[in-house]
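name: query_chain
kind: protein
chains: 1
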Amino acid sequence: MLVDSRRFVPAHRRRIGLLGQQPLLFPHLDVLGNVVYGPRAQKLRRDKAKMLAMEMLERVDAADLASRRPDELSGGQAARVALARALATRPRAMLIDEPFAAVDIEYTPRLRVAVKAALTEVGCPCIIVTRSRPTSRRWPTTSRCWKVAGSWNTARPPRSWPTRKALSGNGYSSGN
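structure:
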């Protein structure tokens, strides 16, 4: 993704989705505008970008929020919109950093299910970083999804990891 067979690929063309701890939605756009932004930046026609955005909002159970502004959303709603925005760019891979940190504890299990379902439907590989035991335990480590568990985990990286030396002592594990 960083380099293809002949040339360096700039960051804005790598198609890597990022879902961070904070949703960081554009405050001047409504929910639909936030999700449409990525596909439009990729030169997708307005009507197709809007259809794709609505499809992604439906996938994360947020289609009814399309006309709301970010300041009118709860933490869980904003996280779902951020996920829809990341998926609407049709990423080749997703990097997910503590996606449930800003979400109410009562809503986290539902959002975890929505995120896993959306990623499964889209089929892109992901790396999730979490310090949450429940998230780590309930998030499957598969050939298309890897997790890096946080500082509470005392396991050492397997010897087969090429980054074993860099990670040892930091409490990271492969999630196995």
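note: Helices lie at 31-41, 46-59, 75-88, 108-122, 133-138, 164-167.
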